[in-house]
Amino acid sequence: xxxxxVIAVRNKKTIYxxxxxxxxxxxxxxxxxxxLNEALNHARIELTGINVPKILEVTTVDGKWxxxxxxxxxxxxxxxxxxxxxxxxxxxxxxxxLQIDINKHSCTLLNNLKDRMNLHICQSGLNATTRYxxxxxxxxxxxxxxxxxxxxxxxxxxxxxxxxxxxxxxSHATQGNASAxxxxxxxxxxxxxxxxxxxxxxxxxxxxxxxxxxxxxxxLSLVAASQLVKGNENERELLLPWVNIVDFE
Length: 249
What we know:
Elements: E1 6-10, E2 13-18, E3 21-26, H1 32-48, E4 55-61, E5 64-70, E6 74-76, H2 77-83, H3 88-103, H4 113-122, H5 128-140, E7 146-148, E8 157-160, E9 165-167, E10 174-176, H6 178-191, H7 195-209, H8 213-218, H9 220-227, H10 233-243
Helix pairs in contact: 3-7, 4-5, 4-9, 6-7, 6-9, 9-10
């Protein structure tokens, strides 16, 4: 196994290419359970027919856990948008189409989205009164069993050299409400500083999925609260104002 060609570094993960294999090496802070859970999620998604690189092996590299999968030659959607800003709207259309297709699938073996969000709200550091309100509103939201990616952004989509999109990084995958997944994508785009793109994305998602925009917006404060456990202090500052937003005009 050769680890001399780095192709990406993100979130305490370093990704290497070794011929036709992609090797994701996790920081030592990641536990065995974390890595095996991501691999298991990915393997379960493979069974649904959603287009993903196939996992080949889970192993250790220099004492750190690693997931080995197929290498897909291509560029991420984020790279393509940066290189072709005039085609950004076209890529946002594809982003939404792919997400809606994912949401059409189900996988009953995945963790429940509401359960995970309730746990994250407990760990959010928000005061007890706010947490109580968030838990109550979350539990009152409709229960669905659609596949939700949990981190669906242009950087997690790779377009192969022959134009085929592959969806990456299923560590946060759950079964639940598609509108919650859309709300998370919207907030992640805002965190990344793309307010215009986030607004266009949300409008496209609602139009293409025939979902009321107000319904997705009802998830924003819930998703923002659950996202607090994952972000750094800068992200926390950006997310906190959304936690207290309940009604939209």
